[in-house]
Amino acid sequence: MDRQIPFKVRRFQSAAPYYAAGRPAYSLRLIRRLVQFSGLECHHRVMDLGCGPAPLAIALAPFAGAVTAVDPEPEVLRLAAANAAEANVEITFVEASSYDLEPQFGEFWLVAIGRAFHWMDRADTLQRLDKLIEPHGSIAFCHSRHSDLPDNAWRAAYDEIINRYAADDADRARRKSPGWPRDESVLLDSAFCRLERISAIEQRWTPIERFVDRAFSMSSTTPRKLGTAAKGMAQEMRAALAPFATEGIIIEVVESEALIASRPESG
């Protein structure tokens, strides 16, 4: 089983407008806990690697001295810069990928990676980050997930549609196969082998249309990838989720999570 997904330029180009609206936002409680847990202070530098529309960079900017957000997709970076301006935070945006990480980026106390590590050559990325992260710094891998709770009963209908429309995506099949190494296994074989996890669980009220945006933000079901089938998927999604909604709103329970990896000598 291959341990990496081939790098594809502009994979998320058509997903960019849907990402910020559709993906579950990271809990502000998680961000505050991450800042405290990582020891991030106002003089430290932060990198958001694979930043997308920069939710992590924007959330961490008030707690850091400087933030650099890195992504290979120019359309994503354009939207990220607009989001940062709206939030009134200063962020340096760099069009690059994990394969471009070199010492000239400088040193960072914290590198945040949200929903992007699986697209990278994970072992190579960790080796590169080992040269960029300060001795007592760390990496935070941020995700969101939906636990098996009654409020998340909509998830089966949502997943069925995504799985059907993404059935021919070989990269997705590889990532979800039993032989795909988990991030924890890759990290335990790296310099950043001290692992700890923090999370925050919240009940949220989400319009059905945001779930359509969420589907279009996935690499396997972007509008560009689906082509003429995109309209049909959106219609199916709205119809399938309608029974779970009240006046067009679905309750979902979201767990925002950060897996924090540091070097053993960091204490």
How would you describe what is shown here?
The chain has 267 residues and is an alpha/beta fold. It has one domain (16-266): Vaccinia Virus protein VP39 (Rossmann fold). 36% of the residues lie in helices and 24% in strands. It has eleven helices and seven strands. The protein has helices spanning 16-22, 28-38, 55-60, 74-87, 122-130, 155-165, 170-175, 183-188, 208-216, 223-226, 230-241; strands at residues 45-49, 66-71, 92-95, 108-114, 133-145, 194-207, 249-262. Strands 3-2-1-4-5-7-6 form a seven-stranded mixed β-sheet. Helix 1 (16-22) crosses helix 9, helix 6 (155-165) runs antiparallel to helix 11 and helix 9 (208-216) runs antiparallel to helix 11. The two termini are 34 Å apart. The model has no long low-confidence stretch (mean pLDDT 93).
Please provide a brief summary of the model.
This protein has 267 residues and is α/β, with parallel strands linked by helices.
